[in-house]
Amino acid sequence: MKTILAITGLIFFQPLDAFINMADVDCGMSVVRNGKIVNGIDAEEAEFPWIVSLKQRGEHFCGGALINSRWALTAAHCLLSRRASQIQVSVAEHNLLDANSQHTKLFQVTEIVLHPSYVTRQLAGDIALISFDQEVQWGDRVQPVCLPNPDKDPFAGFLATVAGWGWTDEVKNGGKRANILQKVDVPILANADCQQWYKDEKKSLIIVDTALCAGLEVGGKDACQGDSGGPLVVKKEGRHLLVGVVSAGIGCARPRLPGLYTRVNHYLDWISRTVRQEKEL
């Protein structure tokens, strides 16, 4: 059973205890059932049909996730000192070197909306919305991701998947940027446990309640530079929910220093207000 809320041209499908859909098609579904990130593996083509590559002068610099045909979510820190006119968004991308892919489409960014609470080099509010100059056309390779319900579910204990074209390791360890989309599974931690790990490692970083930690105590698997803004998803009731946005970390994949993500379900009101205002213009 589900409740359907119509809000200014957007349809929010909200099954109880499940997900929010901000698009006009089904969300969080991938036609690929089995499918650099540090110690990840190549994703299958179209395995994450909501992931986008943010580009400036043709070069990938951050990731993002489609939430409807005009908007994508990314990290605020990705967009500092950048203007919308400088950024394009690539959808249905898999190999960054395949410039002739018949599936990849580029869209010009027309608006950047940073969360008003974001402060440079801080965890709180590291989330942003970008809109495009035309609507994305849905298909098997391009689909929106679902958003989690606004129930503040901490998702602690869930196994999540992060994907991106970032570095395969820290530069000092010989890492380099991945050209083929990478993915890796990492467990989500309770914030209190994450804070204790950072404290044990003599790191003074405060894990705020709008952040989320995911990683292994022994390290070895993580997002890295270039994955920023990309999606951290969990699969729940057969759908992929965008629970986190790649935000920060100390190094990459270090023991007891898990990756830090913006917790999406703390920002749902802001997301819906921003998208709704655009629809009303």
Q: What can you tell me about this protein's structure?
A:
- The strands form four sheets. A six-stranded antiparallel barrel has the order 12-13-14-17-16-15. Strands 5-6-7-10-9-8 form a six-stranded antiparallel β-barrel. A two-stranded antiparallel sheet has the order 1-2.
- The longest helix is centred in the C-terminal third of the chain and has 13 residues, at 268-280.
- The two termini are 33 Å apart.
- The protein has two helices and 17 strands.
- Helices cover 8% and strands 34% of the residues.
- It is globular, with a radius of gyration of 17 Å.
- The chain has 281 residues and is mainly beta.
- Strand 5 and strand 6 (59-66) form a beta hairpin.
User: Biggest sheet, strands in spatial order?
Assistant: 12-13-14-17-16-15
Average pLDDT reading: 88
Shape: globular
Largest sheet: 6 strands, antiparallel, barrel
Q: Report, as a whole number of angstroms, the end-to-end distance.
A: 33 Å
- Contiguous runs where pLDDT drops below 50 for at least 5 residues: 1-16
Supply Rg.
Answer: 17 Å
Tell me the structural class. mainly beta
Portion of residues in beta strands equals 25-35%
Helix share, percent: under 10%
What is the strand tally?
A: 17
H and E order:
EEEEEEEEEEEEEHEEEEH
By DSSP (H or I, 4+ residues per run), the number of helices equals: 2
